[in-house]
Amino acid sequence: MVKLLSVHQRTAQRLISSNNLKATKVCPRIWRIRKKDLDEFLQRNNSRKQTEENIN
Questions:
Q1: CA atoms lying within 13 Å on the CB side of residue 11
Q2: What are phi and psi of 40, to 5 degrees?
Q3: How far apart are CA 48 and CA 46, in angstroms?
Q4: In terms of DSSP H, where are the helices of 1-56?
Q5: Pair 38, 20: CB distance under 8 Å
Q6: Is 26 strand, coil or helix?
């Protein structure tokens, strides 16, 4: 997921811990994110980014 979003691992952890991105903990250090949840996250953030660009 870090590679898909082009973000640092810590940023991905923050997105999960802040409930902005749904994930399931599989082991102490492994999280799983469903494709559906990732797609929804990307769609929400893309529309938010476009709105901000339109305001400026």
A1: 8
A2: -65, -40
A3: 5
A4: 2-5, 9-17, 35-55
A5: no
A6: strand
Q: Closest by alpha carbon to 1, among 45, 10, 48? A: 10
**Tokens 């590679």 sit on residue:** 3
**Residue 6, φ and ψ in degrees, nearest 5:** 55, 50
Amino acid symbol at 2: V
What is the DSSP secondary structure assignment for residue 25, as one 8-state letter? E
Report the length, in residues, of the chain: 56
Query: Tokens at residue 23, please?
Result: 């994930």
Q: Which amino acid is at 54?
A: N
Residues 6+ positions from 14 with CB-CB distance below 8 Å: none
pLDDT along the chain (56 residues), means of 10: 81 94 94 93 78 53
pTM for this predicted structure: 0.72
